[in-house]
Design a protein that fits this description.
GO terms for molecular function: lyase activity. This protein is about 50% helix and about 15% strand. The chain has about 260 residues and is of the alpha/beta class. The protein folds into 2 domains: about 200 residues, 2-enoyl-CoA Hydratase, Chain A, domain 1, CATH 3.90.226.10; about 45 residues, Lyase 2-enoyl-coa Hydratase, Chain  A, domain 2, CATH 1.10.12.10. Bound molecules: 3-methylmercaptopropionate-CoA (MMPA-CoA). 3-methylmercaptopropionate-CoA (MMPA-CoA) (1HE) binds next to strand 5 and helix 5.
Length: about 260
């Protein structure tokens, strides 16, 4: 078995950490060791990292669960296995800094579940998305029934699972699986550029977006509005916020620019 460092390749680009799923011969199929390595990486994010880009080495982002390990589990082991995925993918969703997924080729099954745990998704236009669980006689176990319906709606997820429908990159973009679509080979550069932009924000603002926003969105409006006020006041009280507001008023900060 390859060691954790090999299964997840880690490269620093200043304040941005680039992590790459690194099992290309198996299309980055996620065996237990790969999930453990992912979990370990997200459990030990260096304090000076401000954003993360997550990609897959080789021809595909991720072929999902390593199916060769499946037959060896009984029901109880199956539950624990799924809970292990949940713990690892929660570390991504609730990471201290934002995570930009860079998607290409197959983003299927557990691969789509990993992508859905990230905060921003960039796709190359060769990406395709599927939940082949129905054909394999299994069900999602890595949070796919929780996170993906929140992105594209339960009806689309049911269609993908029941009929084996494969969404191409354009469909993925139209439905909201990705929010950036780029040419093949350009995904990582785009993902790193977005991560650098994110890294330049005040850390507390980023933290509020990734930690508070999804939780507020699940609350009833009245509760959500109240929690929003608390988070707004906390973020605004940070020295970084005060300096950034002053910089704008003193015309030292960039304006919001209209897209070209
Ligand atoms: C694998 C896996 C895998 C590839 N587990 N070994 N996921 C799936 O049902 C997707 C299954 N995989 C595929 O449909 C295709 O492999 C791909 C479309 C992703 C890529 O096709 P291709 O032609 O580039 O590669 P390949 O020749 O099919 O695969 C290369 C090798 O990777 C080959 O092994 P080799 O020893 O013959 O070289 C494949 O067997 C191996 N491989 N995918 C194990 N998934 C938390 S629950 C989540 C539940 C799920 O994710 S279910 C969906 C599982």
């Amino acid at each position: 078995m390859a060691d954790a460092e090999t299964l997840i390749q880690s490269t620093r680009h200043g304040e941005v950490l680039h992590l790459a799923l690194n099992r290309p011969a198996k299309r980055n199929a996620a065996n237990d060791a790969l999930i453990a390595a992912l979990d370990a990486q997200f459990a030990h994010i260096p304090a000076d990292v401000r954003a993360i880009a997550l990609s897959g080495n080789g021809e595909h982002f991720c072929a999902g669960l390593d199916l060769s390990e499946l037959s060896e589990r009984n029901v109880f082991e199956g539950i624990l296995h799924s809970r292990g995925w949940h713990a690892a993918l929660d570390r991504i969703q609730y990471a201290p800094v934002p995570v930009v997924a860079v998607l290409h080729g197959a983003v299927v099954g557990g691969g789509l579940e990993i992508a859905a745990a990230c905060h921003v998704r960039v796709a190359e236009n060769n990406a395709f998305y599927a939940f082949p669980e129905g054909q394999r006689g299994i069900f999602v176990g890595g949070g796919g029934s929780v996170r993906v319906p929140r992105l594209i709606g339960a009806a689309r997820v049911a269609d993908m699972m029941l009929t084996g429908r494969v969404l191409d990159a354009d469909e993925g973009q139209a439905t909201g699986l990705s929010t950036y679509l780029v040419q093949p080979g350009e995904g990582l550069a785009k993902g790193l550029a977005l991560a650098q932009k994110i890294a330049a924000n005040a850390p507390m603002s980023n933290y509020a977006v990734i930690q508070a926003l999804p939780r507020i969105a699940e609350l009833a409006p009245e509760q959500g509005l109240f929690v929003e006020s608390l988070v707004a006041a906390i973020a605004q009280g940070e020295p970084a916020a005060k300096e950034r507001l002053r910089a704008f008023l003193e015309k030292r900060a960039a304006k919001v620019e209209k897209p070209q």
